[in-house]
């Protein structure tokens, strides 16, 4: 797969959305468990935070590249909203459909396995959406065009008319600018595996503690 192909760009864009959604989902679940929120409120909170983190991950590189925060926010709102919305609807639907997943705590392996399944399904639900938008110069194509425009801004003043025409044309074409999506993929996998390992350890400890207490109670009764 060529890293500049529409498929590669769509995969990278979807992974960016997936990263923000995963962070928002887990953060919302943590807050919901700490404060004892209902499943509905926890889903709403996670849904909202997924958008916050998703937009932030896309906006920060643009701001670092010299774009104002307001302009960057407007750009990512146009670029990422449909993708994040698709991903969140599917992700939460899968989590809700898996028996016991929403009620499982963060130290329950069921939660992490369910989250991994939900994110996997959500990725493949959002990918064709991103592919469709990018092929038509919309969605993440707008962000890529802005990156490309910023990278060549030093030449803009020499050929203002030509560059403006070129930039507008790029907004209507599939971008060729590529992203290295491996760090995002590794981060998501490591995050989910870390949570699963911790939950398995906690479950094992709880079981051992329960068996120890049960043995102590039995011994005390026999005496």
From TrEMBL:
Residues 10-139 form the DUF4396 domain. The keyword Cell cycle does not apply. Keywords: Membrane, Transmembrane, Transmembrane helix. InterPro entries: DUF4396. The chain crosses the membrane at residues 43-63, 75-98, 110-129, 184-205. Signal peptide: none annotated. Pfam families: DUF4396. This is DUF4396 domain-containing protein. The lineage of its organism: Bacteria, Candidatus Saccharimonadota, Candidatus Saccharimonadota incertae sedis, Candidatus Mycosynbacter.
């Amino acid at each position: 797969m060529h890293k500049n192909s529409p498929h590669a760009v769509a995969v990278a864009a979807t992974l960016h959305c997936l990263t923000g959604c995963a962070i928002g989902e887990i953060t919302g679940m943590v807050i919901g468990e700490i404060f004892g929120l209902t499943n509905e409120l926890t889903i709403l909170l996670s849904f909202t935070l997924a958008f916050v983190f998703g937009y932030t991950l896309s906006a920060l590189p643009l701001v670092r590249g010299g774009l104002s925060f307001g302009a960057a926010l407007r750009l990512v709102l146009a670029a990422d909203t449909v993708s994040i919305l698709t991903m969140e609807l599917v992700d939460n639907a899968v989590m809700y459909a898996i028996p016991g997943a929403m009620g499982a705590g963060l130290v329950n392996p069921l939660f992490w396995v369910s989250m991994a399944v939900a994110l996997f399904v959500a990725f493949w639900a959002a990918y064709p959406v991103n592919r469709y938008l990018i092929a038509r110069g919309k969605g993440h194509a707008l962000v890529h065009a802005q990156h490309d425009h910023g990278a060549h801004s030093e030449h803009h003043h020499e050929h203002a008319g030509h560059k403006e025409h070129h930039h507008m044309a790029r907004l209507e074409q599939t971008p060729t600018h590529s992203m290295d999506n491996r760090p995002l993929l590794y981060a998501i996998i490591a995050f989910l595996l870390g949570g699963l390992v911790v939950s398995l350890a906690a479950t094992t400890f709880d079981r051992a503690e329960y068996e120890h207490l049960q043995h102590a109670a039995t011994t005390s009764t026999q005496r």
